[in-house]
Write a structure and sequence with these properties.
The chain is α/β, with parallel strands linked by helices and about 300 residues long. It is built from nine helices and ten strands. Helix 5 packs antiparallel against helix 7 and helix 7 (about 230-255) crosses helix 8 (about 270-285).
Length: about 300
């Protein structure tokens, strides 16, 4: 048994788990909401508390700690560049802090990179040498596996699939640019487009009009589209068209053996996968490419952190 502690710093949830990395089994886990006050200090303190509890109860010595972090990570695999959700993480030496607190070696990766590794070793990516992973949720992130290894690029910016520019004069993206895939097909963009459409003539007959605009989410749009709402279906299908185009564009560059999609929007099931697969099939060069759902569920961050120690 080879035990690694996997830590997952997310925008809404912190999770820690004890993982046997030989088979990718989570033996024990703790989760808490990400602290809304206190910034990075409060989040790190909460995570260290969970980590110590797991280490104290471990059935065998723990060899290392791997961290999946919800934001860009520097090329040293130790320093957080920033968090997209919580203040105070800018250029924070996270690995140093955790090593000092827990006396174990630590490596850190962006959550998309970590999830790609987890699915490659333990989930829906098993059996291929090259893998493209996308998280489709509030935003769109990703990770790339080439020849069985995580590909981070020269300065660790590889895998930012959500920031392919597909429509140069398109809507603004949280990254500060315009027309990125994330600005066209993420949860935030779907909700934004639905609110805009509701202000037009079609809004009078849409079931979405009953939802306060500030409360409207992509989940509402998906549910209304599945129920046959014309406005919701139009908004959803346009977003899925962009998502399929972005996947095909990335796949034509990388030629992965498989594309794995995770994240909250994929809970829509066939409503997402059917139109995305249709667009990908029309646009991708490789006729054998498959697009499949992620397999690891809510443990993907914990397993992603642990999988960083499966790198050859």
């Amino acid at each position: 048994m080879t035990l690694v502690l996997g830590l997952d710093f997310g925008g809404t949830k912190l999770a820690a788990g004890l993982v046997d990395i030989a088979g990718g089994m989570v033996l024990a886990r703790h989760t808490v909401p990400t602290p809304v006050a206190g910034g990075a200090v409060a989040g790190l303190d909460a995570m260290l508390g969970m980590a110590r509890a797991l280490l104290n109860a471990a059935p065998a010595p723990v060899n290392a700690i791997g961290i999946s972090f919800g934001g860009p990570v520097a090329a040293d695999a130790r320093t957080v560049r920033l968090s997209m959700h919580v203040a105070g993480w800018e250029n924070l030496p996270l690995a140093d802090r955790v090593e000092a607190a827990l006396s174990l070696p630590v490596v850190v990766a962006n959550d998309g990179d970590a999830a790609a590794l987890a699915e490659y070793h333990f989930g829906a990516g098993r059996g291929v040498e090259h893998l493209l992973y996308l998280t489709v949720s509030t935003g769109i992130g990703g990770g790339i596996i080439i020849g069985g290894r995580l590909h981070r690029g020269e300065r660790a910016w590889a895998g930012e699939v959500g920031h392919q520019v597909l429509q140069p004069d398109g809507p603004p993206c949280p990254c500060g640019r315009n027309g990125c895939l994330e600005s066209l097909a993420s949860g935030l963009s779907i909700a934004r487009d639905a609110r805009r459409q509701l202000r037009g003539p079609a809004g009078a007959t849409s079931t979405l009009a009953a939802i306060p605009p500030d409360a409207l989410t992509a989940r509402h749009v998906a549910e209304a589209a599945a129920a046959g709402d014309d406005l919701a279906r139009a908004v959803w299908n346009e977003a899925m068209g962009w998502l399929g185009a972005g996947i095909a564009s990335a796949a034509n560059l990388l030629n992965p053996g498989r594309v794995v999609l995770g994240g909250g929007l994929t809970r829509a099931g066939a409503l997402l996968f059917d139109p995305v697969r249709h667009v990908v099939a029309r646009r991708v060069m490789d006729p054998d490419l498959t697009v499949v759902p992620a397999a690891l569920g809510d443990d993907i961050g914990i397993l992603g952190g642990a999988a960083l120690w499966r790198q050859p």
